[in-house]
Design goal:
about 150 residues; 4-stranded mixed sheet; about 20% strand; alpha+beta; elongated; about 45% helix
Amino acid sequence: ALIRGVEITMSHREGNYPGVDARGPFSTAEQTLMSAPFCVAVALHQRNVTFDALRRYDDPGVRTLLERTRLIADHTRPQKTAQLRVALDSGDVLEQRVDDTDAALSWSPRQVRDNAHRLIPETTLTQEELTELIAVIDDLPTATDLKRLWSAIF
């Protein structure tokens, strides 16, 4: 089924934050990352959001979905929550809500590491370099200087 329309509902404060409802033209990944409609359009079009996808400013499929997306800044919606409604040409409406942001946004150290490893293909790091960087970060509370961290980053 084709997507006829998309509604993103956020808190009034977050929905009106500069860049959150940006529609383009885009020239940097930072702009597209801030744009909730762009990120949702990428996610719906590609079923995933990657750094590479955030740099495809003129992808026709994403642009079409972006044009069909409306952001609602709702005074009654709590901060750090969201609702997504996708209307299909079949008449069906799909809805997803994030109401418990602590569960959704509070990653364990293991989840952070797993996500970092998942992102390796989109970085300049090797698996070994990432593993070393994670070890250095883990050791920061007892480090006497930042030389090891500096060398792991550069």
